[in-house]
Write a structure and sequence with these properties.
Strand content: 5-15%
CATH superfamily: Glutaredoxin
Order of helices and strands: EHEHEEHHHHHHH
Number of helices: 9
Structural class: mainly alpha
Helix content: 25-40%
Largest sheet: 4 strands, mixed
CATH architecture: 3-Layer(aba) Sandwich
CATH class: Alpha Beta
CATH topology: Glutaredoxin
Radius of gyration: 19 Å
Strand order of the largest sheet: 2-1-3-4
Length: 311
């Protein structure tokens, strides 16, 4: 489609249909996958702008895996070859020795022609991608890497709560996490309005739940809070205007705004947010949506760490 940001991922009805994850190998505690957790062997490549990658950054930090799994950060601005390592000396990742994440993708599958995405977990011995399956990456960090968790690390995916967590994750993914993209990348009015309506209906449901609960699963932070947070923290800066998700700003939804700020002020959350990377990525790398490439100055991020009180 001529007007689509990602033509290969746009249906004939003008709906954004996200591509499947190409690399889905796993690292499992018992080695049944052919790979076991191993300190220093794997490198997590992320963009600080990307909400899908942001989840893995938060989970890696909360679980105390920062010295176990190294972190590579790409430039927030993608060029025609994709994610670049221009933040590193000589524009090359110092561990992997590559200039573009696409080099690792092609080393894994020379015929790969899809969009190169983050996060990607790379085997530093072979330079190949183990997985870019972002929903599974964080779950496996919680469940398969336990031997390396820091003492006192939270259980973000507790066994007794998994069915309820999974039941929340599904609509949050479809209508919120991916819903903002369905609205922003739609090329048909009807497709946009459908995504817009589903997004705010789900946000209203979540708001009602959080009126009586500090976090989505009560008084403890779990995987589902992390998944919702990475969308909420980008909402006013990007999705409200750039993706036309403009019924209300997050800051105009009192319950969700307080919840998101509560998480932001929790160690391991706000210190992983980079509003500069977030805004420059979205407003510069989506020329079909923002052809001028102008990056807005606001909103003021000072409200995020401001003191708050939640009942």
């Amino acid at each position: 489609m001529a007007n689509a940001q990602f033509g290969k991922e746009t249906s004939e009805r003008g709906e954004f249909v996200r591509q499947p994850n190409r690399f889905t190998d796993r690292i499992t505690a018992d080695g049944s996958s052919g790979r076991r957790p191993e300190a220093g062997r794997y490198r997590l490549v992320v963009s600080l702008a990307c909400p899908w990658a942001h989840r893995a950054v938060i989970v890696r930090g909360l679980l105390g895996l920062t010295e176990v799994i190294s972190l590579g950060v790409v430039d927030p601005i993608r060029d025609e070859k994709g994610w670049r390592f221009t933040l590193d000396p000589e524009d090359r990742d110092p561990v992997l020795g590559i200039s573009y994440l696409s080099e690792a993708y092609l080393a894994t599958d020379p015929d790969y022609s899809g969009r190169v995405t983050v996060p990607a977990l790379i085997d530093t011995r072979t330079g190949t991608v183990v997985t870019n399956d972002y929903p599974r990456i964080t779950l496996d960090l919680s469940t398969q890497w336990r031997e390396f968790h820091a003492p006192g690390a939270p259980d973000l995916y507790p066994g007794p709560l998994r069915a309820e967590i999974d039941a929340l994750i599904e609509p949050i993914f479809h209508h919120v996490n991916n819903g903002v993209y369905k609205a922003g990348f739609a090329t048909d009015q009807g497709a946009y309005e459908k995504a817009y309506s589903a997004l705010f209906a789900e946000l209203d449901r979540l708001s009602a739940r959080l009126e009586h609960s500090r976090f989505l699963m009560g008084d403890r932070i779990t995987e589902v809070d992390i998944r919702l947070f990475t969308t909420l923290v980008r909402f006013d800066a990007v999705y409200h205007g750039h993706f036309k998700c403009n019924r209300q700003k997050l800051s105009e939804m009192p319950v969700l705004w307080a919840y998101a700020r509560d998480l932001f002020q929790t160690p391991g959350f706000g210190d992983t947010v980079d509003f500069d990377h977030i805004k420059r990525h979205y407003y510069v790398t989506h020329p079909k949506i923002n052809p001028t490439g102008i990056v807005p100055v606001g909103p003021d991020p000072a409200a995020w760490p401001a003191p708050l009180s939640r009942v």
